[in-house]
């Protein structure tokens, strides 16, 4: 996967699908989905740069998650996990509130498939946020 770099390839796929699927599930504007194209172009040019580097330099490359390669200071510590979790929880709550009908209640909107999909996607994003915050607590215990 990704010329033998498993972490790099997996993390690029994860970022791509996250940027593509989460806005779709919670009905964010199409502008956010266009970020998936940026991730795709980045991975394309990143792979071209790796394949064109000399053998000595290619052998020195380490298999890292893409965010570790781009932002070396960004490691999965308590603060990053907590803030990421809080962000996902807020995005999920915002999506649920935007799915509410007029007057702030759901009423007959349970029958609407789009609203149900948006609410289900928002709940999944909130669960992801809670999971990240729990991981931050476990990170502190270690």
Précis, in short:
It is built from seven helices and no strands. It has helices spanning 6-25, 30-33, 35-52, 55-60, 66-70, 78-99, 113-141.
Order of helices and strands: HHHHHHH
Number of helices: 7
Which regions are unreliable across 5 or more consecutive residues at pLDDT < 50?
A: none
What is the CA-atom radius of gyration, in angstroms?
Answer: 19 Å
Largest sheet: none
Q: Describe the global form.
A: flat
How would you characterize this protein structure?
With 142 residues, the chain is mainly alpha-helical. Helix content is 73%, strand content 0%. The protein contains seven helices and no strands. The protein has helices at 6-25, 30-33, 35-52, 55-60, 66-70, 78-99, 113-141. Helix 1 runs antiparallel to helix 3 (35-52) and helix 6 packs antiparallel against helix 7 (113-141). The protein is flat. The two termini are 31 Å apart. The mean pLDDT is 77.
Key features of this structure:
single chain; 142 residues; mainly alpha; 7 helices; flat
Fold topology:
Blueprint: H1 6-25, H2 30-33, H3 35-52, H4 55-60, H5 66-70, H6 78-99, H7 113-141
């Amino acid at each position: 996967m990704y010329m033998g770099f498993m972490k790099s390839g997996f993390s690029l796929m994860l970022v791509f699908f996250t940027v593509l699927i989460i806005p779709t599930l919670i009905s964010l504007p199409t502008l956010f989905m266009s970020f998936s194209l940026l991730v795709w172009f980045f991975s394309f040019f990143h792979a071209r740069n790796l394949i064109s580097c000399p053998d000595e330099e290619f052998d020195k490359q380490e298999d890292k998650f893409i965010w570790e390669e781009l932002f070396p200071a960004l490691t999965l510590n308590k603060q990053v996990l907590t803030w990421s979790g809080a962000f996902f929880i807020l995005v999920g709550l915002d999506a649920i509130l935007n799915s509410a009908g007029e007057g702030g209640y759901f009423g007959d909107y349970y029958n609407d498939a789009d609203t149900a999909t948006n609410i289900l996607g928002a709940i999944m994003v909130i669960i992801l946020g809670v999971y990240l915050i729990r991981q931050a607590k476990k990170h502190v215990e270690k």
